[in-house]
Write a structure and sequence with these properties.
The chain has one domain: FAD/NAD(P)-binding domain, CATH 3.50.50.60. Helices cover 35% and strands 28% of the residues. The protein has 11 helices and 19 strands. Strands 5-4-13-14-15-12-16-19 form an 8-stranded mixed β-sheet, with helices on both faces. The chain has a 3-stranded antiparallel β-sheet with strand order 2-6-3. It has a 3-stranded antiparallel β-sheet with strand order 8-9-10. A hairpin with a 2-residue loop joins strand 17 and strand 18. It binds flavin-adenine dinucleotide. Flavin-adenine dinucleotide binds next to helix 1, strand 2, strand 8, strand 12 and helix 8.
């Protein structure tokens, strides 16, 4: 998703871009394009508009008009409303599948973009003025030469491992169980984040009145929940979430993902840049992974278009370092925020429970705190690149 987004952002800038993807486009096995719901921040919408794909995604993206945060069995809760921020929606929810489709469809027809798929990057060699990439295709092998290799190859990035770039990694010992459900009450555009003693449970509104559940549990509990039959599963969800959305029914397919916090120690080397999950992975507690990745895209595209427009070599370290420096603060802030929330809300100690509930009450009552949190959720913090301001790169 992140790699295709970068190619879209730079199409028409006069560059020749090859996008290499291992999974065939019509495959329903592509792990990133499953039923998982992706909460898209308002700032992500602006970037997708700049890429020209928002008008096609809009019909599949449900607006988030309110966010309701609560701590199960305790007094604290907080609400955020889009109208308080002067926007139509705080964010949107689309399935990974819908997002994947609009990003990949027609990619090959864009000016200067070639999609090579299915094809696997097997090896590469970085030289002083170019990088050479070896691909394995169904029909044989192919070699590419370019000024820059962008690794958008996910959290197990082969490019990152081959370069020997170290990662700082922390496993939460938690697994996210996801499933789409039909609520008993009519949805009103509210996204719920409910902290429970077994881990955070998010309910995100989907198009057509369904809700997407993302429930983080200990690895053992997740295994047990995955094995339940549908009615026992619904009963367990109901016990944890309560009845704000009435009685849930018609659970879709369940999937599970091990959760970790990961950050690569270097995001650029000469002629190589890491973006998206290849550079960092966060807990899905506030739905930030893809949003962070697309903000990497907006900044890297800005820096590349700028260097190319001036006739500079886009693979040089001083060009790429601008991208790494620009992105550091936002990436660290989101990692810190998600990690802090996971730790704070999974800690059973009484004083901490009290503090977090007081924190939620304070948040609910203090407009400046709400505004700060909403801006962070909307992806509108810090110095914004052109695509995040709705400006074209051409
Ligand atoms: C349960 C869950 C819920 C989430 N919810 C949200 C949310 O609400 N909001 C949000 O913003 N984010 C969310 N995320 C995070 C989001 O899904 C990821 O951040 C996003 O998918 C990362 O995209 P990516 O393109 O960087 O990596 P990936 O999606 O992993 O894509 C990497 C691509 O590279 C290809 N590839 C890898 N190696 C090679 C190779 N050698 N040759 C060729 N191709 C290769 C793969 O086939 C794949 O297509 C969630 C994640 C999980 C697990």
């Amino acid at each position: 998703m992140v790699g295709a987004s970068l190619a879209r952002s730079l199409a028409g800038c006069g560059l020749h871009i090859a996008v290499v993807e291992a999974w065939p486009l019509d495959s329903d096995q592509q792990p990133s394009y499953d039923d998982r719901a992706i909460a898209l921040a308002y700032g992500t919408r602006v970037i997708l508009e700049g890429m020209g794909v928002w008008s096609r995604l809009q019909q599949d993206a449900e607006p988030i008009r309110h966010i309701h945060v609560s701590d199960r069995g305790h007094f604290g809760f907080a609400r955020l409303h889009s109208r308080d921020q002067g926007v139509d929606a705080l964010g949107y929810v689309a399935t990974g599948q819908a997002l994947g489709q609009v990003l990949m469809k027609g990619l090959d027809d864009l000016s200067g973009v070639e999609l090579i798929c299915p094809a696997t990057l097997e090896s590469f060699a970085v030289g002083s003025d170019q990088v050479k990439v070896e691909l394995a295709l169904e029909t044989g092998r192919r070699t590419l030469h370019g000024r820059l290799l962008v690794a958008a190859d996910g959290s197990r990035s082969l490019v990152r491992r081959r370069l020997g770039i170290a990662v700082r990694e922390w496993s939460y010992g938690q697994t996210a169980v996801i499933a789409n459900l039909t609520p008993g009450k009519e949805a009103d555009g509210t996204a719920y984040e409910r902290f429970t003693d077994t881990g955070p449970l998010a309910m995100l509104p989907l198009i057509g009145g369904r809700y997407a559940m993302v429930w983080s549990l200990s690895d053992e509990q997740a295994e047990e929940v995955m094995a339940l039959d549908d009615s026992a599963f619904l009963q367990r969800v109901q016990e944890r979430f309560g009845y704000r959305l009435g009685h849930f029914s018609r659970p879709g397919k369940r999937s599970s993902y091990a959760l970790k916090l990961m950050r690569a120690e270097e995001h650029v080397r000469s002629r190589v840049a890491l973006i998206g999950n290849a550079a960092h992975a966060v807990h899905p507690i506030t739905g930030q992974g893809f949003n962070l990745g697309i903000r990497d895209v907006a900044v890297l595209a800005d820096v590349i278009a700028d260097a190319h427009g001036r006739g500079n070599d886009i693979g040089l370290m001083d060009v790429l370092q601008r991208y790494a420096d620009w992105r550091r603060r936002d990436q660290q802030a989101v990692a810190l925020m998600t990690d802090g929330l996971v730790r704070l809300f999974t800690n059973p100690l009484l004083p901490l429970r009290l503090v977090r509930n007081l924190g939620l009450v304070a948040l609910d009552l203090l407009p400046p705190a709400k505004r700060l949190l909403s801006r962070r959720f909307m992806g509108l913090n810090g110095r914004l690149p052109r695509l995040s301001r709705g400006l074209s790169l051409e």
